[in-house]
Amino acid sequence: MNGTSTLLIVVGLFLGGGVISFVKQKMPKNLIVLLSIGAAMCLVSGVLRLEVWN
User: Fold this and answer.
1) DSSP 8-state class, residue 50
2) 45 contacts: CB under 8 Å, gap ≥ 6
3) Contact 50, 30 (CB under 8 A)
4) What is the pTM of this model?
């Protein structure tokens, strides 16, 4: 596990927590969707960069 994959996974989890917070605050749905897409992209790219797949 290198630094870049770790950073992407941590940022994805941070954004995922933001999604949960925004849902609880009843923020606009398009903002929640945009944030969740960003969180999912960070998590997926972090997992795919792991060296387990090689």
Assistant:
1) S
2) 8
3) no
4) 0.85
CB atoms within 10 A of CB 12: 20
Tens digit of each residue's pLDDT (9 = 90 or more) over 17-44: 999 999 999 999 999 999 999 999 999 9
* CA 38 to chain CA centroid, nearest Å: 6
Question: How many structural domains does the chain have?
Answer: 1
Tell me: pLDDT of 52 over 80. Answer: no
Tokens of 1: 């596990």
The owner of tokens 């630094």 is: 3
* Sign of the dihedral defined by the CA atoms of residues 6, 8, 36, 16, in that order: positive
Tell me the one-letter amino acid at 24.
Answer: K
Domain that holds residue 33: 3-53
